[in-house]
């Protein structure tokens, strides 16, 4: 099976300037000599947790599996370079499934110049598991970290939030080019991507930076999907609740000095919707400013791994 | 859960000179500036396929999960540098299991100077899955490949073969130092590690090199475990059958020019048991020379991934 997949990939994969040795040996060799620092991240996605294979096209699963990794690279302002792909495939129909996954992720790899530097393809009696490790390089500005926000910095985000479960958690485009452009053109103090939820990922920046954060409830960009989900659920949760807590938006949260934020908002890079949604403050914790400007403590909510 | 594990790892992990940014950000940053080429490999291990969690200590599973990756680096004559670790943990007892896995793999990481550069820890209702990606650097001699064997080269192996299922497939030491020492001191034309089976992995070298290989049945080093397994099974399979086909020995197979092989066998690096077990020949395929020197075609056997 694995040799059949390798034969398929050898035909399907374009040559890549970084890839000195690809599939067919015990490991791949990447030319990273001019890269200096190497950024590395891994994400594992499981059927029934991160997607429902019975309901979605495997190509969307493949797309998401690589996209979440590229989003982590974007969060570091890192340029994608390569990825390796490990699969645990159900025995029945595994080969077709593997091809579907690759058909979904290869266009994304091509778009962002990611060399597919090998993988490990297995079959078993369990559900599909996809584990991708992505490598990236850094620009001369270095990595964008979580821990650099300063009191007074504005909180600037890309895109809109909430309701990703209705589909965008599978089909989103990682903010790779946006992160690189913003990091190059503006002074960013800190950044992350929204995987667990806007409020919880913002809280991570605040914690790592030793400060707190105030969110201005009235200006948080709410995705159409968040409104649709609130209406569908009818459980009293508002579109704003979904925007703050749903997660898997894979937008960027940035800490930007005020003067720089004004400049950025006045002239955003092409195609990058930006909104200032609050500021970092001395008081630790997360705070929500209501329409009257009153501050209410806000318990960050989002995706939490449950385990005994 | 994941934050608890990160806190545990931050205390447990020693600082590493290559690791500029570790756990706690969206990705890790490795200083690979002086490394040039980066070797990368991934292996995913699943409960019920690569180990039986109900029967073995999680520390042995953790050890194996990293060791198989280091064996792939060894097969390329690559010096281990870093690893990232993705886990799908059963919900019940997942945190204890995760710690057990790390307690098993960290001594190996320390021994070979591997920076643990982050991971992704998940829980689900399925069985344990461990996916590790390892990065390595190359010596000035470059990578050891599968495809470089030449007709006339001797087949030289480390260690002994067969019966790994009795325990050594969990507890083996990857031949990292041995591969680096041999690659530095001798001219090696090709190499691989034995994961699927001595005969099948040798066949891979022969195929990639465009030649065939003759094995001398009388001199193949047979592990004690292969003899015990043959006796236990009592199904007519001989210790030699097990040595040729069992797999997961994680020994090295090397293609070495004859004069160099003689020099190597006369003065092996300390602690490296070496045996010449045959030679590469023009006629494609795998051949077994019996005690009379007669050549019989041999169908390579070993672990095959089964899938519909």
Look at the structure and name the CATH superfamily of the largest domain in chain A. PurM-like C-terminal domain
Assembly state: homodimer
Percent helix of chain A, as a range, is 25-40%
Assign the CATH architecture of the largest domain in chain A.
Alpha-Beta Complex
Question: What is the CATH class name of the largest domain in chain A?
Answer: Alpha Beta
Q: Supply the number of structural domains of chain A.
A: 2
Mean pLDDT of chain A: 93
Number of beta-strand segments of chain A: 13
CATH topology of the largest domain in chain A: Phosphoribosyl-aminoimidazole Synthetase, Chain A, domain 2
Q: Which structural class best describes the helix and strand composition of chain A?
A: alpha+beta
Structure description:
Two copies of one chain form a homodimer. Chain A is 32% helix and 28% strand. With 308 residues, chain A is of the alpha+beta class. Chain A folds into two domains: 2-138, PurM-like, N-terminal domain (60s Ribosomal Protein L30, Chain: A), CATH 3.30.1330; 154-297, Phosphoribosyl-aminoimidazole Synthetase, Chain A, domain 2. Chain A starts with a helix and ends in an 11-residue tail after the last strand. The interface between A and B is large, with 73 and 72 residues.
How is the topology of this model organized?
The structure is a homodimer of 308-residue chains.
Chain A: H1 2-12, E1 19-21, E2 28-31, E3 37-46, H2 58-75, E4 78-90, H3 94-111, E5 115-124, E6 129-138, E7 154-158, H4 168-171, H5 176-185, E8 190-193, H6 198-209, E9 212-216, H7 224-233, H8 239-245, E10 252-256, H9 258-266, E11 274-281, E12 285-289, E13 295-297
Parallel strand pairs in A: 4-5, 9-12
Antiparallel strand pairs in A: 1-2, 3-6, 4-6, 7-10, 7-11, 8-10, 9-11, 12-13
Helix pairs in contact in A: 2-3, 2-5, 7-8
